[in-house]
Design a protein that fits this description.
Strand content: under 5%
Number of helices: 4
CATH topology: Helix Hairpins
CATH superfamily: MazG-like
Helix content: 55-70%
Order of helices and strands: EEHHHH
Number of domains: 1
Structural class: mainly alpha
CATH architecture: Orthogonal Bundle
Distance between the termini: 29 Å
Strand order of the largest sheet: 1-2
Largest sheet: 2 strands, antiparallel
Shape: flat
Amino acid sequence: MTSSNNKTPHARGLFCYNAFVKEHQKQVDEWIQQCKIGYFKPLEIMVRLTEETGELAREINHHFGPKQKKDSEDKQDIEAEAADIIFTLCCLANSLDLDLDRGFQKAMDKCYRRDKDRWEKKQK
């Protein structure tokens, strides 16, 4: 049951947004389809995803950890580095014909089922 604002009620009283990542996957696919090479092989994309994750980790360390950047290093944006991971993950999912929205919903369902009593809840 989809409403006009693209939200559906979740079984636990929450709302899930339909096709949030699907739209990103579509945009990535439209861009990739312009290129003769198409998608890289899944293992190659996984290596790229690991590289992008390392770049995000480095930026977080520079912003919040003890390691400061050298004066000669360009300042990067944590938001942009996180977006690079989303882009690369969409490439991986598209190359394997995966629906990340469906997978994400399964992950959230697992959290609510398996971890529902794992941590103390905030008082309402």
